[in-house]
């Protein structure tokens, strides 16, 4: 029987082979970067990222089968010198929220830890353009004013 020893510290979880943050938060439509660390001796093993709350039935999205492996918006890269692998999710969406696992493939029993990913709504940026106005009449007249927007501003 295999037992995983769980250690909790500074918001991180560890099974002694692989560890990282338990919970990460990203703004919607941003680039999510999740880093998973591993102990010495695991450099030559395949690393993976899977989705699902249950370890035994999670769906593996990417594996480190080459320098950078990509599957749609998700990629994984292993830095064996720093003993960490990085998962990126481009344009993260609300539907990407949920439980994931960072893992290391090992004959008989993979090693890993669970990460909860939360996606919060992006902030909307309101851009106001000031437009220089040209008066079409004499300086003291009440003639109508024609305003033109600079090329970088949309005309509303």
From TrEMBL:
A GO biological process held by the record = immune system process
Protein name per its UniProtKB record: Ig-like domain-containing protein
Sequence ranges assigned to domain Ig-like in this UniProt record: 28-118
Which PANTHER family would you find in this protein's record? CMRF35-LIKE MOLECULE 1, POLYMERIC-IMMUNOGLOBULIN RECEPTOR
Q: Is Mitochondrion among the key words of this record?
A: no
Write out the annotated subcellular location: Cell membrane
Example GO molecular function: transmembrane signaling receptor activity
Q: Which GO terms describe its cellular component?
A: plasma membrane
Look up the coiled coil feature and give its residue ranges: none
Keyword presence, Signal? yes
Keyword vocabulary terms for this entry? Cell membrane, Disulfide bond, Immunity, Immunoglobulin domain, Membrane, Receptor, Signal, Transmembrane, Transmembrane helix
One Pfam match, by short name?
Answer: V-set
Recorded family membership:
Belongs to the CD300 family.
InterPro entries in the cross-refs: CD300_family_receptors, Ig-like_dom, Ig-like_dom_sf, Ig-like_fold, Ig_sub, Ig_V-set
Membrane topology field: Single-pass type I membrane protein
């Amino acid at each position: 029987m295999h037992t995983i020893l769980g250690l909790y510290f500074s918001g991180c979880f560890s099974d002694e082979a692989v560890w990282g943050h338990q919970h990460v938060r990203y703004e919607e439509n941003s680039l999510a970067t999740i880093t998973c660390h591993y102990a010495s001796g695991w450099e030559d093993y395949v690393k993976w990222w899977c989705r699902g709350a249950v370890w035994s039935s999670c769906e593996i999205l990417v594996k480190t089968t080459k320098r950078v492996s990509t599957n749609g918006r998700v990629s994984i890269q292993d830095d064996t010198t720093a003993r960490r692998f990085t998962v990126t999710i481009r344009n993260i969406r609300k539907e990407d929220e949920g439980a994931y696992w960072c893992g290391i493939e090992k004959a008989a029993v993979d090693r890993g830890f669970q990460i909860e990913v939360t996606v919060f709504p992006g902030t909307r940026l309101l851009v106001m353009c000031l437009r220089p106005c040209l008066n079409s009449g004499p300086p003291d007249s009440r003639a109508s004013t024609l305003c033109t927007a600079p090329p970088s501003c949309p005309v509303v």
